[in-house]
């Protein structure tokens, strides 16, 4: 695959340059920590060019990394997709605040893609 080809079932995030360098370090230099560091952020409904497979993406401005977290925001990308109508709805029982912290996602590789510009 070249740098702009995405694999099946890969969930792609848009990371600002500072976060991208942290993730690149995890991928390339810290195999020991690759599965211990996770990504979290606010879900936005809608497809984006860099993550076309899923009908949602993470707001690039909300993305952070964490090592340990609460399980109430944990779900697979497939679970989010299956419950997208309930996500972000108070008292829905599924990611009611729209915050997602998928513990099962792991960093595989960096994809070079233009970082989305700020929306005004």
UniProtKB/TrEMBL annotation:
Residues 7-111 form the BP74 N-terminal domain. InterPro entries: BP74_N, cAMP-inducible_BP74-like. This is BP74 N-terminal domain-containing protein. It comes from Dyella nitratireducens. The lineage of its organism: Bacteria, Pseudomonadati, Pseudomonadota, Gammaproteobacteria, Lysobacterales.
């Amino acid at each position: 695959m070249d740098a702009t080809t995405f694999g099946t079932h890969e969930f792609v995030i848009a990371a600002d340059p500072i976060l991208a360098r942290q993730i690149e370090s995890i991928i390339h230099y810290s195999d020991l920590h690759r599965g211990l560091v996770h990504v979290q952020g606010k879900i936005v409904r809608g497809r984006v060019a860099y993550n076309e497979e899923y009908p949602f993406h993470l707001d690039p401005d909300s993305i952070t990394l964490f090592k340990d977290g609460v399980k109430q925001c944990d779900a697979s990308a497939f679970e989010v997709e299956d419950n997208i109508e309930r996500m972000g709805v108070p008292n829905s029982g599924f990611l009611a605040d729209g915050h997602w912290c998928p513990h099962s996602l792991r960093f595989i590789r960096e994809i070079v893609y233009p970082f989305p510009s700020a929306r005004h």
